[in-house]
Specification:
about 90 residues; 1 helix; disordered C terminus
Length: about 90
Amino acid sequence: MTATKPGSCTQPLPGIDADIVDDHGDTVKRADAGGYLVIKKPWPSMLRTIWRNNERYIAGYWEKFNNRLYVAGDSATAMRTAISGSWAHR
């Protein structure tokens, strides 16, 4: 079990390719950098449209990075954990 605190998150579920990117859609490299929380590969059960408003869905979730990345609408900060050396997102 992963220890967490309210408002924090852990690693994505298996098969979900989440990332933190900058304004250009490039992966954030610095351990203290922030950016947009995105999904790199869609999966069948994720949001596919907004009822009766597909244009709003595309504009709100895909257009920011030329339809390459799904923008979750959240900001995130990447931190390198001292204990495991793995990336943690918050």
